[in-house]
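FIELD: query
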Amino acid sequence: MNERTAALGRAIAGFADAALLLSETNRFYFTGFAASDGVLLATKDEALFFTDSRYTEAAEKKLGKAYVRDSADLYHALNAIFAEKDVRTVAVEQDRLTLAQFAELKEKLPGVAFDDSPALTRAVNGLRRNKAAWEIREIAEAQRIAEAGLNHILGFIKPGRTEKEIALELEYYMLKNGADGLSFETIAVSGVNSSLPHGVPGQKKVEAGDFLTLDFGALKNGYHSDMTRTVAVGYATDEMKRIYSVVAAAQRASLAVLKNGVTGFDADKAARDVISEAGFGKCFGHGTGHGVGVEIHEAPNLSPRSKWTLQTGDVVTVEPGIYLPGEFGVRIEDMALITENGCENLTAAPKELLIL
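FIELD: result
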């Protein structure tokens, strides 16, 4: 069908005769066609996309008639293909398949054995993690939309605005100015709520002396962006400024070590050591970063438990933070493209402490 499905066929050759992808995200990645219904079959020789009548015409235009089949006859067609091609082992997405889906596959496709090990997941993650030049352009375009949103919202924020008002205004601006959707539900948390890394915007009004943390992103052509900025409203105390400077230094330290061959563990450690040495190690509980692409969280990751080694073409976030319950929190996040000898920061927004 295309080079991506051909690469998937080659990747599974060592452990399966075919792969069935049911998840919407992976189907989109390998076909470039977005649909809520579908099954992608990949073998070493071919790939076929099964979908229902809602998407058949559009799929044929996108993928070509020769590669699209009606899913109303899915299991009969798969059984016939497996018999014709002597398919004996079929790999499935261990991390994405529900128990009900897996039970149905085993019931309806009795003539094959299923590989439900992590092998297919590892193969897919290996293909998805290294971004082509055009994918990087899509991520960068999504990021430019998010940055325009930041510039807009900085003029909107003032004491008396609620967190929810700020989040909705930011989302509306991005959607009105080029975003196909949101990368995730926007985080806009202020004052004591900013100590919640994934706090939900509520009716709390922003007050002078608050930190306000904004974590948001835009979706464009199927690719996500992700950024976080923490700003002060009205004024910042010396303690607020000190904590902000520690987080900024931690982020710089992690960005400085990023390059091909560095482990996700070491990239995380570079940031974590700065925060720990400042006495706030217990106030940084999450990982330093994660991959971004057709999903907002994908391989590889930067954390104390990371088993990944970074490669040229990875796009990862770098987002250390310090969170003081009952007081405030600070997080700063950029996206970085891993290169052979360093990284390219895909985020152009300023990072010095802004006092609005």
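FIELD: remark
Residues 27 and 40 are 6 Å apart (CA to CA).
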